[in-house]
Amino acid sequence: MDGILYGIGTGPGDPELMTIKAVKMMNACDVIVLPISNQALLSEPVYYEGLTEKAKQFNVDCIAYQIAKSNITRPEKKGFLYLPMPMIKDSEILKRIHNQGFEAVMKLLRAGNKLAFLTLGDPTIYSTYLYIHNRVIKKMEKQKL
Fold first, then answer.
1. How far apart are alpha carbons 128 and 85 in whole angstroms?
2. Range of the domain at 18
């Protein structure tokens, strides 16, 4: 796997309070990964190359993107991967959805892309990012054995 996945926190909610490192990493990446709770995106992840009109519609529903967008240089040159992250309690459905998100992320990583997974606050504390991160780590550990 040649790609890399970064969990990037958008901080407390003000674009000016994102860290310099977070902004640099986000802009160095090929793909912006966004968790979406939009009911129209519950079946599987969606990927768009560039900032298409459909991508813009999903971006409206992602608070992390709304915080970070003014710090993203040349968003039209980036890919956008939208991962369903519904607020539901059914563990079987959530497991399926998270596994599908993991597979979509792995496909882009295998292709050598750098991915910036944007999340509210800190990506290591109660974050949607961790559902994908933990699966990627397990996959990497299995490949090393």
1. 7
2. 4-144
Q: Give phi and psi for 64, each to the nearest 5.
A: -60, -40
Rounded CA gap, 52 and 65, in Å?
Answer: 15
Count CB-CB contacts under 10 A for residue 58: 19
- Cα–Cα distances in Å, from 16 out to 28, 57, 62, 121? 18, 24, 18, 13
Say which CATH number the domain at 38 has: 3.40.1010.10
Q: How far apart are CA 89 and CA 133, in angstroms?
A: 20
Task: Measure the CA–CA gap between 141 and 145, rounded to whole angstroms.
Answer: 7
pLDDT above 70 as % of the chain: 95
Number of domains in the chain: 1
Contact predicate 134/97, CB 8 Å: no
Best CA proximity match to 116, nearest among 30, 51, 15: 30
**Per-residue DSSP letter, 18:** S
Q: By the 8 A CB rule, do 84 and 34 touch?
A: no
* pTM beyond cutoff 0.90: yes
The 10s digit of each residue's pLDDT in 87-113 is 888 899 889 999 999 999 999 999 999
